[in-house]
Amino acid sequence: MSRNVLISGYEVFGNNTMNPSLELIHCLDGEVIDGRRICTVEVPVNRHTCFETMEKAIKAYQPELIICTGLADGRTGISIERTAVNVADFPVPDNAGYLALNETLEEGGPAAYFATIPIRNIMTAIREEGIPAYISNTAGTYCCNLLMYRTLHYISKNNLGIPAGMIHLPFLPQMAADMNMVPASMDLTHMVDAIKTAVHTALADPLDRAVICGACQ
Predict the structure, then answer these.
(1) Is 26 among the residues known to form the active site?
(2) 144 in catalytic set
(3) How far apart are alpha carbons 32 and 41 in whole angstroms?
(4) Cα–Cα distance between 162 and 155 in angstroms, integer?
(5) Pick the catalytic residue: 50, 68, 143, 144?
(6) Catalytic one among 81, 143, 153, 190?
(7) 154-179: pLDDT as tens digits
């Protein structure tokens, strides 16, 4: 296996004029972390071509670690996803105008997959950098969930053994400033630092420790 790490980001979608995950991968492409080269892929917000783009990147780069990133409305910090579910149930159409309603992502696939990156270690390490971070128990039912689920399914089906997961990002400040009800935001520099820390932690500290991060709701 090559010494590459694959990080994905999404194109701009919906009413947004930017996508922090796209800005993020532009900053990280070609960086070297712990001797591994960061390779990136821009993924379309498209029900039918989203994972196909990721699959091509996996085959091209043969990474030893995959971190998907995306924008999630309303997130208050870096949110590391615990699970992806076998359903596409879109709140809004994708960029091709397609609206998935309660569709199964993989016929015969498991109901859900857990992230295989050390989510607790990553959360702790990012917080130690002074950046807000938490564990999220749902990646939603839009394209980010789709990408996380199908990536983990592909890895499992093909016995690749690649740790993988999804990290959601909040709005950039310049995006939040244009909204009437100003949501939480984070500058790009902190997002980049957080993902670098996530990569380093996943590589150096892969055995997840027991840390309180459960939720009552």
Answers:
(1) no
(2) yes
(3) 16
(4) 7
(5) 144
(6) 81
(7) 999 999 999 999 999 999 999 999 88
